Amino acid sequence: MAAFDIPSASARITEARCTCPNGAVRDDPKRLQRHMTRHDPHIYPGRYVTCVHTPDRALCRRDDGRAGPSLPDCQPLRCRNVALSAENTDQLRAALEAHDRELARADQLAPFVRHRLQTRRQELADFLTETAVTGPDTMTETP
Predict the structure, then answer these.
(1) pLDDT string in tens for the chain (143-residue length)
(2) Would you say 74 and 61 are in contact if contact means Cβ atoms under 8 Å apart?
(3) Residues pairing with 4 in the sheet
(4) CA distances from 100 to 28, 32, 68, 86, 119 (A)
(5) Among 43, 56, 109, 118, which is least packed, fewest CB within 10 Å?
């Protein structure tokens, strides 16, 4: 998985924030959300990742014919549509710490649960290591 800057994500976010009269900047979250609802730039902010949805690259294709990502099918550690904000990275690090706390009591966990938790923790740690090279506000691409 290689990390790279994604100008289209930055351009879409800038456009969503700056398309208001008289050069004013939208910094009010309610107004920004209203604008994004009206002029959908296909940016879907989330707790762990921000999806800059491009259907032909999405791993979460919808079966119901509607536009946008299928969030229940999101694969954030593998998808090329993922962009990370500083807040997303903080949440991912907090999830890693939560896994570490759970694994500290590994002797109390069932072997399958322990194995799945260790695997998930390693995937998350690898993802954070790979994206730390370029920092937040990047996307990931699977080679």
Answers:
(1) 334 445 555 565 555 555 555 556 556 778 777 776 776 677 888 888 888 888 888 888 777 777 778 877 888 888 888 888 888 889 999 999 999 999 999 899 999 999 999 999 999 999 999 887 454 444 444 44
(2) no
(3) 139
(4) 36, 36, 34, 21, 12
(5) 56
Strand arrangement of the beta sheet that strand 2-4 belongs to: 2-4, 139-141, 82-83, 50-52, 43-45
- Distance between CA atoms of residues 24 and 143, nearest Å: 40
Q: How many residues does the chain have?
A: 143
3-class secondary structure per residue, the chain: CEEECCHHHHHHHHHHHHCCHHHCCCCCHHHHHHHHHHCCCCEEECCCCEEECCHHHCCCCCCCCCCCCCHHHCCCCCCCCEECCHHHHHHHHHHHHHHHHHHCCHHHCCHHHHHHHHHHHHHHHHHHHHHCCCCCCCEEECC
